[in-house]
Amino acid sequence: STAAALRLGQLDLVSYLGELCDRIDAAEPALHALVPEAGRRARLLADAAALDARFPDPAARPPLYGIPAGVKDIFRVDGFETRAGSLLPPAALAGSESACVRSLRAAGALILGKTVTAEFAYFEPGPTRNPHNPEHTPGGSSSGSGAAVAAGYCPLALGTQTIGSIIRPAAFCGVVGYKPTYGRIDTSGLIFCAPSFDHVGLFTQDAEGMILAASLLCAGWTPVDEQAPPVLGVPDGAYLRQASPEGLAAFENQLARLQNAGVTVRRVPALDDIAAIAHRHIRLMLGEMAEAHAPWFAAYGALYRPSTAAAIHEGRDVSEDEKAAARAGRSAVREELEKLMDEARIDLWATPAAPGSAPLGIASTGDSAMNLPWTHAGLPAMTLPAGSTENGLPLGLQLAGRAMSDERLLVWAARLEKLLGMGA
Predict the structure, then answer these.
(1) How far is CA 372 from the centre of its chain?
(2) pLDDT value for 422
(3) Helix (H, G, I), strand (E, B) or coil at 386
(4) Angle between helical axes of 207-217 and 406-419 (0-180°, round to 10)
(5) In whole angstroms, what is the distance from residue 330 CA to residue 378 CA?
(6) CB atoms within 10 A of CB 127
(7) Element (DSSP H or E) covering residue 86
(8) Alpha helix (H) ranges present in 38-196?
(9) 394 forms bridges with which residues in the sheet?
(10) Which of these, 275, 396, 273, lies nearest to 340 by C-alpha position?
(11) Which distant-in-sequence residues (6+ apart) come within 8 Å of 174 by Cβ?
């Protein structure tokens, strides 16, 4: 892996960073995955020299030594302004560095830079385009992080998910995306969208890289060794019918490939109340957005873009009783999904990662319907690249596990990645 090669000195860090900066210089004027930064190359080389001075002995180097990480611009990072994709003055959004960024630095990672986010991690998109076809969206709200990993700018990037903001852009950009069990990665130092649903997650180029990164950021990580392939459950019903005909056909093809490789797939009626779940999720999200933004919106409301401002106005009408009921509903959905897993004897849920491939245009980030229930329930979820459409746009397979079983989800995902023919 790149991490091992850098740590052992088999890959020269200065040469590696030079190659990445050359790639960014060539592609970034059209891609717009990164928040612009003057002197990025010089800063990275200085950071690398300082890292090398701290860890001259390869045997003593930390696990992510020299790995450049993109950081979604809703995380506070020392030495960088935080704008959260907005026009608000960075001083208003300033604060202490995010806990997960501190963890990455402690593991030896370098900060490649800030990646573009939809405004305040909601729906107003930034300028990022899809690396596979610039006429299409990269997804959002972690658009820059997904695109940066897909374009080869960095092997690792931080994102967040409040509905589908990691899984969807990872699927649209053809990379691995992971949203942990709710709360397993520390969210402190984040510009929150909706604290009941905000998950810190990751983008990597393969599942093995994800296991390494997750093991360093998830609280209480305990390595597991799953020898048997997982039994997959397909949640049949109203939820699955939200996917497009193209998306469903691709999903059935993915399942057939896995079944041909010996994986058991069971169809389980589930989530027929998805419309009610989605309504509660959106209402609580808007209510919490209005709370989180109250002081900023009072001072800088005129600087908010239209759909973000409309969300905050709508959120003010969500009562405390409605918010409390929606919060209680989260655990009910989790318990129901895990009960169905027990009854059907399945290990992971498998679904399309998005209704279809990345939509045309960058005015929208796409539809997060396939991601919503797993985020609502706080269950760990992952997407693997799983083929492409006739026009060459990537498709993803979404996997979701039991709460706090992230370790098993990721190990199984690495096995399935190989069976899908996407892994090494």
Answers:
(1) 13
(2) 47
(3) strand
(4) 170
(5) 8
(6) 12
(7) none
(8) 40-54, 90-93, 99-106, 143-150, 167-173
(9) 388
(10) 273
(11) 132, 150, 385, 388, 394, 396
Find the largest Cα–Cα distance for the chain. Answer: 59
| Sole residue written with tokens 């986010």 | 117
Q: Tens of pLDDT along 297-329?
A: 999 999 999 999 999 999 999 999 999 999 999
What's the token pair of residue 90? 């960075």
Structure confidence by residue, pLDDT tens digits, 9-26: 999 999 999 999 999 999
Computed over its alpha carbons, how large is the radius of gyration of the chain? 20
- 328 φ/ψ angles, rounded to the nearest 5 degrees: -65, -35
**Amino acid, single-letter form, for residue 416:** L
pTM comes to 0.98
**What does the alpha-carbon distance between residue 373 and residue 332 come to, in Å, rounded to a whole number?**
11
Residue listed under structure tokens 């990751």: 202
Distance CA(289)–CA(193), nearest Å, equals 5
pLDDT tens-digit map of 139-153? 999 999 999 999 999
pLDDT tens track for 177-191? 999 999 999 999 999
How many residues in the chain? 424
Question: Could you tell me which residues are beta bridge partners of residue 202?
Answer: 158, 178
User: Positive or negative, the Cα torsion across 134, 202, 159, 235?
Assistant: positive
Residues noted as catalytic: 72, 141, 165
Q: Which residues contact 396 (CB under 8 A, 6 or more apart)?
A: 167, 170, 171, 172, 174, 177, 352, 353, 354, 383, 384, 385, 386
